[in-house]
Design a protein that fits this description.
Elements lengths: L1 E5 L3 H12 L5 E6 L2 H10 L4 E5 L7 H7 L5 E6 L5 H6 L4 E4 L4 H24 L4 E6 L2 E6 L3 E7 L2 E6 L2 E5 L3 H8 L4 E5 L2 E4 L3 E5 L2 E4 L4 E3 L2 H12 L2
């Protein structure tokens, strides 16, 4: 799992770096002292897990997390236990109270891994044929085979079906969980595509059969192309 650390205290950074190095399935791809630095990285790169301190300069960890439209899985780290409930309200995976042991750190990582595996198993074993899209006060039934792409736009997502677009109240991560692993792949931090609708791939663009041109993000390109070529 590609992970980042958002922590302003060098001793805490060093501990997290050491713990991450000792876990084979974790890859540390960035360390940041405040949320604004991390936001720029999250907008450009694929990150699956974020170790996030709550007391940060400029913007605290809770407010930073609320500001991220498509947050990765999150493990909060802090010396103050009173934030635990609010953290879980934001759907964080775990809450590490400083100082924490390697054993407790590993327990949090295992929770993240178990959550990812549960989504993967569900997606591999259940081929969803239709979905209900929550759009404003309605739930619109959509045939999965008719979807071309799903794109994130600020606080909502746009689902492209033939010649129309449906606005959804759900974030892009919701649709990754629901549809990912079948014929749908995330090819950019803001885009999921239906691979059955691909006409061709040209450089850093995926061109769909309706003429849509979807950008192919650098962080997603290698995995996507490898998966497509193996089909």
């Amino acid at each position: 799992m590609r992970c980042i650390i958002v922590e302003d205290q060098p001793p805490a950074q060093r501990i997290l770096k050491k713990f991450i190095e000792d876990v084979p399935n974790l890859e540390l791809v960035g360390v940041f002292s405040d949320g604004l630095q991390a936001m720029d990285f999250l907008n450009a790169e694929m990150v699956e897990l974020m170790f996030l301190d709550i007391h940060l300069p400029k913007i605290n960890g809770i407010d930073f997390l609320k500001s991220i439209p498509e947050a990765p899985q999150v493990v909060l780290t802090t010396a103050f236990s009173e934030y635990a409930l609010e953290g879980y309200d934001l759907n964080v995976v775990d809450y590490l109270l400083k100082p924490f042991s390697f054993q407790r750190f590993l327990q949090a990582v295992n929770k993240v891994q178990a959550k990812q595996e549960a989504v993967t198993v569900r997606n591999e074993n259940i081929l969803v044929s239709e979905i209900y899209v929550k759009s404003s006060h309605e739930h619109i039934k959509v045939a999965v085979k008719d979807i071309f792409a799903i794109s994130s736009d600020s606080d909502y997502t746009e689902i492209y079906v033939k010649n129309k677009k449906i606005l959804s109240n759900e974030p892009l991560r919701h649709w990754v969980d629901v549809l990912g692993g079948n014929q749908f792949y995330q090819v950019h931090k803001s885009h999921i595509i239906n691979t059955k609708k691909i006409d061709r791939i040209s450089g850093n663009l995926v061109i769909l059969t309706d003429g849509s041109k979807i950008p192919l993000g650098r962080a997603y390109k290698d995995h996507f192309l490898k998966s497509i070529l193996q089909q």
